[in-house]
Amino acid sequence: MARHVFLTGPPVGKTTLIHKASEVLKSSGVPVDGFYTEEVRQGGRRIGFDVVTLSGTRGPLSRVGLEPPPGKRECRVGQYVVDLTSFEQLALPVLRNVTKENRNHLLPDIVTCVQSSRK
Fold this sequence. Notes:
The chain is α+β, with helices and mostly antiparallel strands. The protein has three helices and five strands.
């Protein structure tokens, strides 16, 4: 039976849960893969979010006022401009690597910036 864990909601420890659960699974020899998002702050103000893979690779997911690359369409969620290229390079390979053997161990944290930007 496939098991996917999707966590969403207010800031109550979702990322901490992902870190702890993935470490327990890894230490038990269970392969895990996935990604989560982290808030990025500057001067005490939220300026965006990063996407972080469970292998530790990090890249921008969205930023306030970010300009899209020339020739690229701007994707905006509230005040945040989404960096589609970064997301596609980091998160999509994780999702594409889901196989029958490893699909039970995918631990993504749904992008919470969509909810946060609606506050």
